[in-house]
Amino acid sequence: MPPLPLSAEMDFSQNSLFGYIEDLQELTIIERPVRRSLKTPEEIERLTVDEELNDIERAVYLLSSGQDVQGTSVVANLPFLMRQNPAETLRRVLPKVREVLHVAGVEMQLTAAASFLTILQEESVSIQTYSHSFLHIILQHVEHRDAGVSNAWLETLLSIIEALPKETLRHEILNPLVSKAQLSQTLQSRLVSCKLLGKLANKFEAHIIKREILPLVKSLCQDVEYEVRSCMCRQLDIIAQGIGTELTKSIVLPELIELARDESSSVRLAAFETLVNLLEMFDADDRSQTILPLVKSFCEKSFKADETILLSLSLHLGKLCHGLYGILTPDQHLRFLEFYKKLCTLGLQQENGHNDNQVPPPNQEQEKRYASVRKNCAYNFPAMIVFVDPKNFHMELYSTFFCLCHDPEVPVRHTIAICFYEVSKLLSSGVYLIYKELIALLQDESLEVLDALVDHLPETLELLTTGGESSVQESKLLAVPDLIPALTAAEQRAAGSLKWRTHEKILQKYACLPHIISSDQIYYRFLHRMFTIMITNNVLPVQKAASRTLCIFLRYNRKQEQRHEIIQKLIEQLGQGKSYWYRLRFLDTCEFIIELFSKSFFCKYFFLPALELTHDPVANVRMKLCYLLPKVKSTLKIPADKHLLQQLELCVRKLLCQEKDKDVLAIVKRTVLELDRMEMSMDAFQKRFYEKDSLDQEKEREELLLLEMEQLEKEKQQNEGRQNSDKVFEKKQRRDSKTSAVLPKTIPMSVAGSSSCTPSTSKEVKKSKLVRSQSFSSQALHPKYGNLEKCTGKNSTTVYATSVSGTGKSVLSYTDDSFRTRNSSGNASLYSNTSLPSTSRNINNSVDQKNNGSKDTQSRKATLKSRKSNP
């Protein structure tokens, strides 16, 4: 691109100069508030504190004459002062804090409430001292006019109630509640009384609650303000736990029934949630006769009422169905189930084109509420599986589960992904039904969904491969085709995002794959990917997670050739890599190898490559190796690894003598002291190393077992190959015998087979039969074949019955010259070293061969000549 002319770069015309001046004026306007915010010398003088004052004196001074921000700082620092000097703080600082809080603003009030609670939690003073010094200040500000400040002090007071003795609670809190809960008090005072009554119900005996607390509860349940009625209603389940079942049924339940019919929707909602929480306290009669009609009415009106009621109902529906289970009729059971299914698809009918009732499409706020309802339904899905019985899942809930897993809103899919493991456990033998949904969630476009699913991915995969109705191997074969692409795609999608923590978690969870899929599948689809992540990824936790998972894959790899390839790759590309970053990752891998493998394995493959890094040109690599040397030495066993110990000592001496980097040299000196204090493991048994040695022996046994299993698999494959070749040869023999049986019928015979043959002709026929039998017996037969019995018929064609050992079957073969010619070139060479079995045909023909030796030789020659002349 050519350079711009000067006039284009900067315009010095008059108009342009005026524009620049206006911009500068705007900048000065922006800077003016900054200048005004600076403190004047008088203000700085007022904020200056004498440096010679101690902490207590400085706090008293700032609370007396300082500004609000300084007072807030003192109040925030109150827990520190209580730890340093509690007596002086209580005597001098706390009275000043009490005075300041009367006129303090919201920020200081909130800070004081938090500081008072911290002092209680740290137990800086005894509970008696605390209640005497701090409780009155808290009670004075609980009814603050600001709702936020009041709630902050109330939370502090509710936390204090747990630690205060009963007498203090009764005199300082319960007795004043009698007057503060009256209608003549403010709304805020009555709301505070409701929450305090709920907290106090578990601190006293049942008769005190019945005499002093329950009358106040009934009065507040009938308050004229719906906020008070709703607040008191939400405390009834806590009060019921304190008074027991009998008083709950006689006093609390009638109040709940009345509140469930209240004119205010918020009060009815509070009553519904309280009834759900108290279901376990009521017997079957109360549930079926009293609670069930209220719940049915509430559910029927929920769609016509405010969406907040629908949200609460969807959140508590699982608990409600669980509490009513056992008292519902089949029709009621079906109605609750259909109601749940309807909530699961709420807001989706319009999108799918099923708006039968001509309801206007929801606005954006309604869509958010409907999505929240479906999210709550996803949260309750495990409870609904129990409600319908896992055996009926496929018929009743599978379609609903499918909809939730494919919901258009991410929070819904995120929630069902969290519940996926619980669903898998509940389905048990039917877990294979949700396999496709697992694949869909693994392929979900949202990483939040994937992150939630991965939390329990190892347990879920284990259930899918071992919990189905089919056997483990069959389940693996069924799961592999879709599972492996989904897992690889999930990892790559996380790798391509900026959420490295999700990527790290996925790599950590993939360490379970050796128990799920075969070693070859891991080798070809996952192992090299782990190595690539170690080399190319820029996030250190991700690299370490990939390194550890790769070591686990190597640990369970069943083929020695593949293991050697991986080890060689680690040493050459990481341990001897050009980048110091690769060499650092190699040391991380060595640390994981020491953790996961036996000592002998590390010493055999990684001990010397790790020590070679003592000569590394980068100081950070040498430093990391020094930190690793104690673990490296712990892998040695004396006297078997004495030569490796000498190598280690030689490397340490070189580091001490030749190291020039002061930081590395300091670490080397500390490492040498640690190495000298270490006790070496011996080949012989030692009690002090019993646990470590037994664990190492177990690892070594597992590694040897993998080698033995590999050898057995090779032998098995060889045996299967032999059996297959035997079967192929046997089939070929049978095919050839059948072919030879057909050929004599089509090829004209050289000798007539009629019964009216002359004696000379019959003699020649016998001679030709002998030649054919001898030529056939000279063929190399399979060792499985047994006796061959010669059977002669009326015709001139010779028939042999071949009995196959182990089968009891007889194969009839018609011997002919064409049969011998076909087999002599193919099978004779294949079994040339196989000893032929003795046959009855050879025994029968032995006499003829002895008597007619010379004639037999001549007849063979004549036969060969005739074949050459008549091909």
Automatic annotation (TrEMBL):
Location of the protein in the cell: Cytoplasm
First-listed, main subcellular location of the protein, grouped into a coarse class: cytoplasm
Keyword terms of this UniProt record: Coiled coil, Cytoplasm, Phosphoprotein, Repeat
GO cellular component, one term: cytosol
Biased composition range(s): Basic and acidic residues: 714-738
Composition bias, Polar residues: 752-762, 818-856
Protein role: Putative regulatory subunit of serine/threonine-protein phosphatase 4.
Protein name: Serine/threonine-protein phosphatase 4 regulatory subunit 4
Origin species: Phascolarctos cinereus
Highest classification ranks of the organism: Eukaryota, Metazoa, Chordata, Craniata, Vertebrata
Gene field: PPP4R4
